[in-house]
Amino acid sequence: MLIAYAARGGSLEKIDAPIDAPLPDDVVWVDLLKPTPEEDAFVERAIGASVPTREEMVEIEPSSRLYAEGAGRYMTALLLCVADHPTPRLAPVTFILTTRALVTVRYDSPKPFEWFAARACKSQTGTPFGLAPEGLLLGLFDAVIDRVADILEQVGEEVDSLSQTIFRRAGANAYRKPYQDLMKRIGAKGDLNSKARESLVTLQRVLLYFSAEINGAKPSKDAVKQIKPMQRDVSSLVEHANFLNDKITFLLDAMLGLVGLAQNDIVKLFSVMAVVFMPPTLVASIYGMNFEHMPELGWRFGYPYALGLMILSAILPYVIFKWRRWL
């Protein structure tokens, strides 16, 4: 799908751009979503920049994600998609910056793209960074940073909630806490946090590459001034993601420790019960022997005596354990 945006009336306007007609001169952003070979060829003819394939976009080498070719700069970042679902994923998005237009190539639908396009088309003043290709690229980066910040804030709140659930009256509810459910939730938050951090790291590299001078070309002074606060924001978000990762690791370790304590309490309970019933078993075993001379067998109160002895031998270890605070 080819989505074209033109700068008209001080804002962006979504227009139709058929591949069998020339691209309008006022088009400043071409968004390729799951492009076909025909759409790739059309953009290459109209913009003068080759469109990378999906296989090229997923390469992990920096030289395959950040490079200059012809009059365009190619920058690929991993953006977080479906963060609100149980299985979030990272999707590679390539930004091709030329003097003619900005070209974005993606095979998924990150929310920042929808939000940024909707705001830029609705606003009467365009975007805070202007309607030039360079400004649109900065606007997209800013939207991505805001989205990741919101995700990390949500992760932090849910991690705090999990922490309160785990440690609130841990001793009293040791056998009732749904450990499996809690550990699954902790694991899900850890996975989301790690993906957000990975996205920020790739964006950090993209911003650094964008601000550098490549083949004698560099961004404008205004763009450099706007890139610096973004870099600071990304760095602070990476540090926050590291903090959340440490907290999630602590919660996971604490959960494993509580599970171990609960298991130890269960084993201790069975051990105490075995010790408590051991003396009565011994008494019953003695009086179950078939010896000829056992004085108690001829007593009138021999049976109650044996029962009382068994009860007393069971109570005595329990009292000793309570007195020594082993229970």
TrEMBL record:
Keyword Metal-binding: no
Sorted UniProt keywords: Membrane, Transmembrane, Transmembrane helix
Membrane topology: Multi-pass membrane protein
CDD domains recorded: EcCorA-like_u1
Location of this chain's protein in the cell: Membrane
Keyword Transmembrane among record annotations: yes
One matching Pfam family: CorA
Transmembrane annotation, as ranges: 269-289, 301-321
Top-level division of the source organism's lineage: Bacteria
Coiled-coil positions: none
Protein family: Belongs to the CorA metal ion transporter (MIT) (TC 1.A.35) family.
Protein known as: Magnesium transporter CorA family protein
Source organism of the structure: Chelatococcus sambhunathii
